[in-house]
Amino acid sequence: MSTNTSGTLFLIPSALASGSEQAVTTPQVVEVLRRVRCFFVENERSARRFISALKIGVDIGALELYEWHKRSDFQSLDAPLKKLLSGTDFGIISEAGLPAVADPGAQIVAWAHRHGVAVRPLTGASSIFLTLMASGLNGQSFCFHGYLPIEKEARSRKIREIEQAARQGNAQIFMETPYRNNALLDAILKQVEENLQLCIGVNLTAADEWVFTQSVKKWKQSPPDLHKKPAIFILGKPPA
Amino acid sequence: MSTNTSGTLFLIPSALASGSEQAVTTPQVVEVLRRVRCFFVENERSARRFISALKIGVDIGALELYEWHKRSDFQSLDAPLKKLLSGTDFGIISEAGLPAVADPGAQIVAWAHRHGVAVRPLTGASSIFLTLMASGLNGQSFCFHGYLPIEKEARSRKIREIEQAARQGNAQIFMETPYRNNALLDAILKQVEENLQLCIGVNLTAADEWVFTQSVKKWKQSPPDLHKKPAIFILGKPPA
Predict the structure, then answer these.
(1) A102 touches chain B (CB under 8 A)
(2) Is B171 on the interface with A (CB under 8 A)?
(3) Where is the Tetrapyrrole methylase domain (chains A, B) (predicted)?
(4) What distance in Å separates the CA atoms of residue B240 and residue B234, rounded to the nearest whole number?
(5) Secondary-structure class of domain B8-121 per CATH
(6) What is the pLDDT of residues A80-120, one digit of tens each?
């Protein structure tokens, strides 16, 4: 599916939590990072910090990093994309977890497919999928909604839509910017039917990570403080 | 969230492709496998083969494996669940990839949450998420539908439903038993609007893996042979 002359585009998962880099990075990712010198990155500093924390002998100063985030202009990537096309391997590294899943990167991947560049996704940490595995909810059929709307009325409508879908039995996954987590949890606990199951996954891969699932009713009795803690929410029903 | 006396339930990803075990397994999983002796497994033989292929010095013969798959009776797990509750750590290993995501395990996890047992999901390979990352389609909002119906009319209806959702812009992920992949691809190519994008991910993590996205129209011109190859399908639109 790829032309013979272009480089390969590697999708490189980064770590979710500082200190977990070595524990969650596969030998395959280490091997690619030892070899690839050019990267599209969501944030230069965190990409350098991630590679550096792996302690695999990469000369960080010699890397070519091209920032790419949701506000970037795609034309700014003109030079590196030409370089990729003419044979240089590139990686994509987003700020936390899997590039192009709830993170930037998909536009570069789509460009690669249009130009016959081989795309190779590498295994790594994702708070979304770690929480889903550990939820005990329906991993046979699920939807991810990304970040919920900020505006209160729009958020409330979206929660109603998610609740309705969760009642059908499919796991409904969503998230929020960490400093708004408590407001979102509050809205869920006020609004959602008490018998539905709510899974919350917090600080995944960090030393103090936890994932726990119980009914909305039980969460109401002692809601956790999620302020500024990265969290994933899943609404659903327990498996039959 | 856990009681102090119970063991921990680890969700242990296995490899997707024979020969890839060492490349895609994180140091964290290796550390847990060196320590944990009791496992719920989808299939005894493949669990042993996976651990054995890692070459990490585990005495395979000394492991306690309890088979658990979708046709199992939950009461058959009575003895090991009691053991978990009274302090022994357990792992769950499914046949390929992440336990409890398009694989058995969720009922055991749900039981753990009901009994206050700590659940720890570990990072690893998933053909679903590797294909999604590499699709260039919408990783900000997506649905996973699992295996499509076998019966032709029901499958056709489900494909129509998926197509309609894909037109809204959300990535729609689904799969099929490998020996029916060509029939599914044929149905998609006959039925789905030509301008929608179809991503196909094949043999993920194997030496001959590939992921490629193009319009249904282009796939029609030279449909790949997917017979007996593990594949993930994603219908969607390219990012704006």
Answers:
(1) yes
(2) no
(3) 26-216
(4) 17
(5) alpha beta
(6) 999 999 999 999 999 988 999 988 899 999 999 999 999 99
